[in-house]
Write a structure and sequence with these properties.
heterodimer; A: Glycerol-3-phosphate (1)-acyltransferase; nine-stranded mixed beta sheet; 15 strands; globular; B: four-stranded mixed beta sheet; Alkyl-DHAP_Synthase (chain B); lipid metabolism (chain B); FAD (chain B); membrane (chain B)
Chain lengths: ~650, ~600
């Protein structure tokens, strides 16, 4: 299970020893796509505005709305103006210089796999390239451009959300460093979609620059990978499917932060404190952030994935032969399922190369430790055990083997002292940050506690993809009525289906996932699987307990939401009021001690659960005049609740803590 | 439209002019009265029966003048002389006897080939190496009684067991011979064919029509599973022009005639067909019909389906033909289109009435160099618009003008278009100027008549080049497709790249030659040729590698909106893609025609379906 992965190089090291200015002004001559016909930004806009694709849509819109084609053309031009990047090397150099200073203050190191860089360089020359970084922080795309500049690679053109544009000067500067801005939602706007997609395709087809965007669509507040958004991926695959380029290289990039800048910000947001609007002044207030230590960053440029080989045997490209290619068409079913499968595959490729720090293991352990203080030795022992499990599962774990384990643990705890207190060598039960004031009211105390828990959970979540399949199997064994293999599989399938909005689980891969989980757990001696039965071994107990507890907060969260929908939800429940109502219900449950996991307060979990229930048809949406109401299928929700909580969770707990 | 008697003048110039106005009538809608005045008196317009068929014909023993294991004439080939310089032997071509010092360098640098590494062809297999014929004695007896000449000689049979696909020639050069026809017959007219087909049906014998043998679709390969006697029906002796009708500008010709003979004989009478496929030296009229052939001058004269007025074919069910020579009919689906492209699966085409034209008064070559392929293709499109405009705007004499080829040189991005203008002098010069003006708009530079002419000549000798390559570990082939205009550049890029990539993946040690050209233009698209060759040193089964790459290239062509074939046909080589090409129902239609016309599968070459 040990995967071959590249070594890292710290790019800050050199920066600490020589002039940042010289670095920023260095000779920059990146290799370019071999088929490139160079063109200026103005020419690019003309290419887009004069494309057959756009002409077609302009005429269509003009016919539908009765506006003159010239006016629609004007609109298109304005949209493009609002959207387009204006990359300027001078701005890039300015950013390079500034970011140097910032990065050196914030981070101990920025580690990059240089072999990945070399592969990328090769890929850029051969075919148009799409960069797909994971998205955990605002830093991501600045960091990406910074790294590419450092390695003398072509700077990407980056799809950014419009909200950045609100940041006056910074927005413009981002634009000049290669960002282009897209509205957050433009579902029905044909013209906008046409301008946008043609803009991206023109850049890509001509190999003008690598196109960068975030598959997850937005920053993951939980550090779990988000269900991929298909819009942009559809657009960038289109030129290949229609034969306009020979191939496209898609490069997943995994950016792992030892400590996320937005850590508590995210937690508050998940608990319902709305996210501050991106504003320049807000960014400067973030200066306080500058004085802290954020550890190191690992950036792993994955193996370039050829869209051509992905599509081989999956998409019949002849389907585009019978209509002119410039007429926009909804993707056919096979194209849709191909793009969807590719998206999942790429997200998994991102996950796979995420570097896990020892703290991720500590956070996972601390979250499971509810009722007794741990001394640091015990914690170290557990961490070492988990480290070995992790490695057996093929995780990309950076555990410094040359440092004594106790030091590894204490330095990790130290870096995250905002989240965990250590007193006299003992780590108190559960995560407990300094934000917990004994004087506050019970609800406020609970919320403060939740901020810390959710922050910790975001670190545990970094390792979720490693454990996910075995953990689902472990949980499935618990909710199954017997150890019969088919029944365990059914439970596994049920959980997988239930949680497919929560975790990255490729559609249609239930069997593979089940087999993968079985394989891992059998290989590590946790399970014995016969023709008929799935049985746990004696020495597998510890692992199973760990895995089940990892899933528990999710199971309990979904279960409570079902409970809420059956018991509390009124007829007037709307999409908008769902989250606050659920949250209120949960707070009550938590305060009364009927609920264990404060983690369930995460709005992410609540939204995912609702999406799952809607998908399963347990809740139905009815669109009213001004709001969408939710109609609950009580029978179904009730049965889901029962299945999720087949064995009382309490019982599980005692079984494992004895 | 009464004919206007011109008073019996015998002035040749006037007659020629009248002919031209008749052609103008073929091409134009009658817009004014002037065009139709020149019809002639009966004397000069009657048919000329039995126009001379003496002169060069293809002998029954083809191997006397043609290579048995390569392209073209025995006496003509490329070779490296003692000094290591390339030369072209013989006396037949402009290139013959010339030394080409640059060829060696090109050859070595393009393929990484070396004159030291030779792969000579093996000698012609003796008769013991060829399977003894499976003979249906009763058929042979009956055939003897008809007096139609036939042969069971091994060389004759081997010669007719293949076309010119790479794998076919490669096998011959290695002395490998598979299933070959069991006998060869040489009918000398339509009636002979009728007798042969009758006997074949009577005795359940498999017939494979053979014309010029230039197939590149495995169409002539004998199905190895065929257990009946296979008789190759060599039409080469049916090579007469039976009559020329100057009034209607048609000629009635036996289908075995080869292209160059047809042109030569028509030229003697001042006419031409204008149908000039690259293989016209050897390919036959019947073959053109059976494969839906296309010539490089098709923009003026049309493709074979536009040129035929009447077709006669002998099938197991009898003779199929139309009852009149009307230029167009609305009588249900055109039965000609069951015959055109039937690839020898339905019967033998014996006689064809074809349109003819007076020979052009003036010819001029030309060429244009473009900075890149993209510009060149854009220019071609525009030129095509010009042609349409000219014809639509003027009711004048026909202007003969076409692009003969268009070649992309990849590494330098440079590309050349070669041009041939035909017509009356004044018009040709005017057109030439227009074309160069358009070319200039696309960055094209006139590159002289010589280059143009050379390009045109090369068309005929290019096939000889492959044989040279095969002497030195280089194998290759060209294949074609047709594609809408908006796809031309994309398909060229993707297919070339696919070839290069597939070669690499399959262990070809040297970078392959992978290039293309646009050879024909239509209003709605173009015909694109791909050239693919590589040095196979170090490969244990080069032909298999070649076939895999070509297969992948064809997949790529189809995925990029290209057709299965523009004019080479399907044969057995491209059969597997037929269903997706013409749909299941389309296949059913074709099958039902076959089932009706030839229920006993007498024409059992198994092409197409």
């Amino acid at each position: 299970m040990l995967k071959k992965r590249d070594d890292f190089e710290d790019i800050l090291e050199e920066r600490r020893n020589c002039s940042d200015l010289r670095y920023a002004l260095k000779c920059y001559t990146p290799v370019v796509y071999k088929g490139l016909t160079p063109c200026k930004a103005g020419v690019l806009k003309n290419m887009v505005l004069q494309s057959d694709q756009l002409h077609y849509v302009i005429n269509q819109v003009s016919k539908e709305t009765g506006k003159a084609p010239e006016d629609v053309q004007e609109e298109a031009s304005a949209i493009l103006e609002e959207m387009a990047h204006r990359m300027q090397l001078s701005t890039v150099r300015f950013f390079a210089f500034t970011l140097c200073k910032v990065f050196k203050t914030l981070f101990r190191s920025i580690c990059v796999n240089e072999e990945g860089i070399q592969r990328l360089q090769q890929a850029i020359q051969e075919h148009p390239v799409v960069l797909l970084p994971s998205h955990r922080s605002y830093m991501d795309f600045l960091l990406m451009s910074y790294i590419l500049f450092t390695y003398d690679l072509a700077l990407p053109v980056i799809a950014a959300g419009m909200d950045f544009m609100g940041m006056k000067i910074v927005g413009e500067m981002l634009r000049m460093s290669g960002a282009f801005f897209i509205r957050r939602s433009f579902g029905g706007d044909k013209l906008y979609w046409a301008v946008f997609s043609e803009y991206v395709k023109t850049i890509l087809k001509n190999g003008l620059a690598p196109v960068e965007f975030f598959l997850e669509g937005t920053r993951s507040r939980t550090a779990k990978s988000l269900t991929p958004k298909l819009g942009l991926l559809n657009i960038v695959m289109d030129p290949f499917l229609k034969g306009e380029v020979f191939d496209i290289n898609v490069v997943p990039v995994s950016i792992s932060y030892e400590r996320i800048l937005e850590e508590t910000l995210y937690a508050r947001e998940l608990l319902g404190v709305p996210k501050p609007k991106e504003s320049t002044s807000g960014l400067f207030k973030a200066r306080r952030v500058l004085s802290e230590d954020y550890g190191s960053i690992h950036v792993y440029f994955g193996q370039p994935v050829s869209v051509r080989s992905l599509a081989e045997g999956r998409v019949n490209r002849c389907q585009f032969n019978l209509t002119p290619r410039h007429i926009p068409k909804r993707p056919s079913d096979d194209v849709h399922s191909f793009v969807n499968a590719a998206a999942y595959r790429l997200v998994r490729a991102q996950e796979e190369n995420m570097v896990l720090k020892p703290w991720v293991l500590l956070a996972s352990l601390l979250l499971q430790n509810h009722h007794q203080d741990l001394d640091q030795d015990r914690l170290t022992e557990e961490a070492l055990w988990l480290r070995d499990v992790c490695r057996q599962y093929g995780a990309f774990l950076h555990w410094p083997d040359h440092v004594p384990p106790s030091e590894v643990v204490s330095s990790s705890l130290d870096l995250h002292r905002g989240l965990v207190r250590i007193s006299e060598g003992r780590v108190p039960a559960g995560p407990s940050g300094p934000g917990v004031h004994p004087g506050a009211g019970p609800e406020e105390q609970l919320l403060n506690q939740a901020v810390v828990v959710l922050s910790c959970a975001s670190y545990r979540n970094q390792a979720l993809h490693v454990f996910l399949r075995p953990a689902l199997l472990a949980s499935a064994m618990h909710i199954a009525t017997s150890s019969n293999k088919q029944e365990v599989f059914n439970s596994f399938s049920f959980l997988r289906n239930m949680f497919s909005n929560e975790f990255i689980l490729c559609p249609g891969a239930t069997m593979q996932d089940f087999e993968e989980a079985c394989f891992l757990l059998v290989k590590t001696g946790v399970l014995q699987i016969t023709e008929q039965e799935v049985l746990s071994t004696h020495r597998g107990h510890r692992t199973l307990a760990f895995l089940t507890r990892m899933m528990d907060p999710f199971l309990q969260g979904y279960q409570v939401i079902c409970m809420f929908l059956c018991e509390e939800a009124s007829e007037a429940l709307t999409e908008k009021t769902f989250i606050p109502a659920v949250r209120g219900f949960m707070v009550k449950q938590l305060l009364s001690g009927r609920l264990r996991y404060t983690e369930v307060l995460s709005s992410d979990l609540q939204k995912n659960a609702l999406a799952a229930l809607l998908r399963l048809g347990a809740v139905l949406k009815t669109k009213g005049a001004d709001q969408t109401t939710l109609k609950v299928n009580r029978v179904m929700v009730n049965s889901l609740e029962d299945t999720l909580g087949k064995k009382p969770l309490q019982h599980l707990w005692f079984e494992f803590s004895s | 439209m009464a004919s206007n008697s011109s008073g019996g003048s015998s002035d040749r110039q006037r007659i020629a002019q009248q002919r031209l106005s008749i052609i103008a009538g073929h091409l134009q809608r009658p817009e004014d009265g002037e065009w139709a005045i020149g019809a002639e008196e009966c004397k000069a317009q009657g048919s000329k029966p039995n126009v001379s068929s003496k002169g060069r014909t293809v002998p029954r023993r083809r191997q006397e003048i043609m290579k048995w294991n390569g392209w073209g004439y025995v006496d003509s080939k490329f070779q490296f002389n003692k000094k290591g310089q390339a030369e072209f032997t013989g006396k037949r071509y402009r290139l013959s006897g010339m030394v080409m010092p640059a060829l060696k360098e090109w050859f070595e640098s393009t393929f990484g080939a070396s004159l030291q590494h030779k792969t000579p062809a093996s000698a012609i297999p003796n008769s013991s190496a060829v399977q003894p014929p499976i003979l249906n004695e009763a058929f042979v007896e009956d055939l003897k009684s008809t007096g139609i000449p036939f042969s069971q000689d091994a060389e004759d049979r081997v010669f007719r067991a293949h076309g010119h696909c790479l794998h076919e020639i490669f096998a011959l050069r290695e002395g490998k011979v598979g299933r070959v026809p069991d006998m060869v017959v040489w009918p000398s007219n339509h009636n002979d064919v009728v007798k042969i087909v009758e006997l074949a049906c009577k005795h359940n014998v498999c017939l494979i029509p053979y014309g010029g043998g230039t197939s590149v679709s495995s169409a002539l390969e004998c199905p190895p599973e065929e257990t009946r006697t296979i008789v190759s029906v060599d039409t080469s002796q049916m090579n007469r022009i039976l009559w020329i009708d100057e009034k209607n500008l048609t000629a009635h010709v036996e289908a075995g005639i080869v292209g160059q003979e047809l042109e030569r004989l028509l030229n003697e009478s001042g006419y031409c067909t204008g149908h000039e496929p690259d293989s016209m030296e050897f390919s036959s009229l019947g073959g053109w019909v059976a494969t839906r052939a296309s010539g490089m001058k098709k923009n003026i004269y049309g493709n074979i389906e536009d040129l035929v007025v009447h077709i006669r074919m002998v099938t197991p069910q009898g003779v199929i033909e139309k009852s009149c020579q009307g230029p167009r009919m609305s009588t249900g689906p055109d039965i000609h289109h069951f015959i055109l492209g039937s690839e020898g699966t339905l019967g033998v085409v014996t006689e064809v009435t074809m349109k003819i034209r007076p020979m052009p008064e003036y010819q001029k070559y030309g060429s244009v160099v473009f900075p890149n392929f993209e510009q060149g293709v854009a220019c071609l499109r525009e030129v095509l618009t010009l042609i349409t405009n000219v014809f639509a705007g003027h009711a004048l004499k026909p202007q003969k003008f076409y692009i003969t080829k268009f070649k992309g040189f990849d590494p330098n991005r440079l590309c050349v278009a070669t041009l041939l203008f035909e017509g009356d002098r004044e018009r040709v010069l005017q057109h030439e100027k227009q074309v160069y003006d358009i070319a200039a708009k696309f960055g094209g530079l006139a590159a002289g008549e010589d280059n143009g002419q050379r390009g045109y000549m090369l068309t005929f000798v290019i096939a000889y080049l492959r044989d040279l390559g095969m002497d030195y570990y280089v194998i290759g082939e060209s294949f074609e497709t047709s594609v809408p205009w908006d796809r031309v550049l994309d398909i060229c890029r993707n297919v070339k790249e696919r070839i290069i990539r597939e070669c690499k993946e399959r262990g070809v040690q040297f970078p392959p030659l992978s290039t293309c050209r646009v050879t024909q233009t239509y209003d709605a698209g173009a015909c694109v040729y791909f050239y693919f060759a590589f040095n196979y040193r170090g490969l244990s089964d080069p032909v298999h590698v070649y076939e895999q790459v070509e297969h992948a290239a064809r997949d790529e062509i189809l995925a990029n909106g290209g057709s299965l074939s523009h004019h080479h046909g399907v044969g057995k080589l491209r059969k597997e893609w037929m269903r997706e090409t013409v749909s299941r129902v389309g296949m059913g239609m074709l099958k039902s025609v076959k089932d009706y016309v030839d229920p006993g599968n007498i024409f059992g070459n198994r092409n197409l379906l």
